[in-house]
Amino acid sequence: MNNSRKFAVVALSVSLVLSALMLFAPASATPNVADKFSGSTVTSSSSADDVPINRSLSFRLYTGNYITAIAKAHAPKIVIHHTAAPAPIASPTHVPTTNNQGQLFSYSELESLWVSQGGNPAHKAHAACIAEHESGGKSWVISPTDDWGLWQIHAGGYAMLNPQANARRAIAMSGNGTNWSPWSTAGYCVAVTDSIGEKIVNTAKQFIGCPYVWGGTGPCNAGFDCSGLVYTSLHILGDYNIPRVAADQQAWAMSISANELQPGDLVFYGYPAHHVAIYVGNGMTLQAPDWGMDVSYHPIDWAGQPSSYGRITSL
Q1: Is there a domain that residue 208 lies in?
Q2: Structural domain harbouring 249
Q3: 166 with 160: CB under 8 angstroms?
Q4: pTM across the whole model
């Protein structure tokens, strides 16, 4: 190629470049494309994972770098991703509170709970056994029959899911551990938690409210007479040797004095006895008293002055 032709090609190339510059250049005499970039933000398509990037290009362009600036202005957007921070672990559905609500209570913890809420320590083992059988020691249990919490308080409502409140209600309902008849599981516990006397008292209490019927040995709707109440209570506990009538029971039981009297001992009236009651403490007895009356509590001298006292020494 001769020199004239080379010069023509170079001139044409320069002309084309200048034409391009004039086409994209702003109207001002000195092109400034800083505004194209100043404060621009490059983001990804997911706002949750975006990392904003600010970049300002603050320079005045001249012919030598203008094409480079134009190329940048039309370049694809930069997308930067990062791994989103893991979501915080959700709180458990139930968080045990400072009063142990929602926790599983062991046998010893149930005993401690009973005593801490004013329960008689002498009955803590029995109370713990009842709760174990009623709820398995789970303070959050609600039965299909509307029984609530550790001691399964009937119709107690959500307040009874609080262990302390539940224990206090059980203390009140049981006469501080002296009457477990409201609990259907009471029979499962007397044989393993209390003294012989307490077992006798607690077993007989399930018949409170049953009618007096001469010669009766239960069940409740068939009624009891005085010796029938003692006879059936001992049979439930596995003692099948006790005689049926009061006079024979008087001769069979180990004789004790009035000063030795403890809950579960037998109180006899007459000699030979014509009436018998079960001593429950504090000068009170549980007995099937007479026609037209139900099994109930009465003072020890309600049927007259006792003639003798007897104790069951084994079951």
Answers
A1: yes
A2: 196-311
A3: yes
A4: 0.44
